[in-house]
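Bug #77: duplicate submission created two jobs. Keeping one. Sequence:
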Amino acid sequence: MVLDSGVKAPGSLHTGLRTAIKRALTLESWVSRSRERVTSETFIRRHTQFDSVDEFCTACPCDDDTIGGVQRLSTDRRDAFVARTTDFEGWTEMKQTAATEDLVTLQSA
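Kept job's structure:
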């Protein structure tokens, strides 16, 4: 009888756990330094009124239609835009949630 339960061998479980811990420990620095890749297209579609990162950036009231342009916008204006167009109260919350979802997705794969 063959069991297809998806159980990981102890070695692969240990490696996966180590990888998850490393990613979790670097999550805050990744979130705070992120300039170009803050979130995925899927995250944008799920948590904002936009269908893509490009649409999000274009709709933002910043000079440069990129994530970098969004981040250079004043904190108050950026947070107001995020609160108005997403599921989040501000930019920091959005970035942290995106990073956390990314980490969970990578560990589930």
